Fold this sequence. Notes:
heterodimer; A: 576 residues; Rossmann fold; 40% helix; 24% strand; B: Glutaredoxin; 4 helices; disordered C terminus
Amino acid sequence: MTELKSESPRLQLLKAPTGIQGLDEITGGGLPKGRPTLICGGTGCGKTLLAMEFLVRGAIEFDEPGVFITFEESVDDLITNVSSLGFDLNDLIAQKKIFVDFIYIDPSEITETGEYNLEGLFVRLGCVIHNIGAKRVVLDTIESLFAGFSNQFILRAELRRLFGWLKDKGITAIVTGERGEKTLTRQGLEEYVSDCVLSLDHRVVAQDSTRRIRIVKYRGSTHGTNEYPFLIDDDGISILPITSLSLQHSVSNERISSGIPRLDAMLGNGEGFYRGSSILISGAAGTGKSSISAQFADAACRRGERVIYFSFEESPAQIMRNMRSIGLHLQQWVEKGLLHFSANRPTFSGLETHLTTMHKEINIFKADCVVVDPLSSLLIEGKDVEVKSMLLRLVDFLKINLITGVFTNLTSGGAALERTNVEISSLIDSWLLLRNIEFNGERNRGLYILKSRGMTHSNQIREFLLTDSGIELRDVYVGSDGVLTGSARVEQEMKETAVQLVHQQEIEYKERELENKRRVLEAKIAALSADFAIQEAESLRVIQPERVKAEKLLLSRTNMMKERSDIDEKLNPRQT
Amino acid sequence: MKKLPAQSKSTRQIDENVDKWLLRLYIAGKTPKSMSALSNLTRICENYLTNCYEIELIDLLENPHLATEHQIIAIPTLLRISPSPVRKLIGDFSNTERTLTGCDLPNKNTNFH
């Protein structure tokens, strides 16, 4: 297909880019250059604005000056009206890039006296086109002529001539027309403008009004055939771009933390999610979806990334207060400009409008991460089918821009848990399922990873607790009784603790016993030695006199011997 | 309002009321159509406003900016500048009756006085 396109660019219709967000995508490059395009639609669906934006963007971005011929509003009114949408017409008029002319027709002031033609209009147009070198012309809405002139035959012939004349001049023209009852326009303008017809629509479905655009026909060009919702806001028109036409987006190998270390560990290697992946957190009410999202946002801000938090249920102040209770101080990130809350009531506008707004905000804020909490509140009964493709586009848009998206999805009590009510699961890369585990007369929160593309994730259920310092994941007890959580898990823990305590006590007892034994032994030793001391003393006491006695005996014996020898000497003195 | 009136009387009455009728005819090029419109107009004026009218002929091809300034769309367009209020007629004046009504020219049966 791409080869075909590149082969025949010359044969293809030249297109005048509109510069309007999304319109160039669905028209494949813009409106047919040098030909008239009809924009039809009911009152208040944005015909004038679309035409004006085409001119303004043409003048500013593509250097194609334009002429706006209004048949309905005065020039001043028109300038005021579009200035509220961010276009400074006065400036462009002063620069001669845009010329606005108000053609005023009051049928009551005009008397027809015979044959005439609209040469005056041609002269007028030709004059202003020449003056500013216009390439683009808007006639809004030329059907007013039908109210001003009674001779339909002349008028129709002149219109045919007018479109032919514009074509000859190579002018890219937009003609607007009010929707008719059975025809696209009240006066059947589609007969004359056969190259490109856009139909705008403003419909109310389930009390939500949404503007949509559809390309009814585009001669000589492929184009998107669907109805595309669009939004009119301060920056003009933005048509929700279709980006899901191709699956060519690049991917990142970078992993980012979920803010919960234990969860990162569950996702394999403790690294967390892939950057640019889409993460769905689904679960019933009160399972902690918002808390996980907030923890993720907090972690991202901590890394210095920019996060947009779309909230559809709680106000920013409420979220910040509630998250303080689990130790997340989101206020600081808001103050640093890293975190942006965008809180809207889901009923504030239609889903398409919400998505388009989100699109714009993400682009403006240059977000790295996006939290949508909850996705499910955007859905309104009976709109699932339309909604699905819209969500696909949002998810796809995030992926293409490598923005990590966290979506929460509230599953209703009766619905199957492993099913999202918009069936976007196929687009989701990592899907965390939170569930209430009802057991033993209480509900506890359990988390498991239903899927996570491209990583070896844990298959285990973890119980998670909301504590003062954030989210904690705990092992759950899986045994013959099933999964134990909450107090049952606590009970189990206590049982184990008790057993451990008994063991501990046993050891301590033994130790004490041993100690006692030693003490007894030591006491015995002390008593024995005391006893011995007494005996010793006693013995010594007995021994002492004996010793004295022995000494005395010895002494007396010595003395005796001495005396004897003295006698001997006296008898025999030479003996010594 | 049956037939064209006998002109002289009413014309004289007009004369007394206004000084001069100022008519401005816008055409785009001297095409046969615009020429026939001019002759139709002149004929009617001659009949009803003898000598007290003035036709200013503006060719938009020569002064295209006047189309915008004077809010002209259809060709030919006739503006009755005076007497006021300004009246606007389009067409080639082939329908005399409508031309008279459009210009607020009194005929025989609808006398002002």
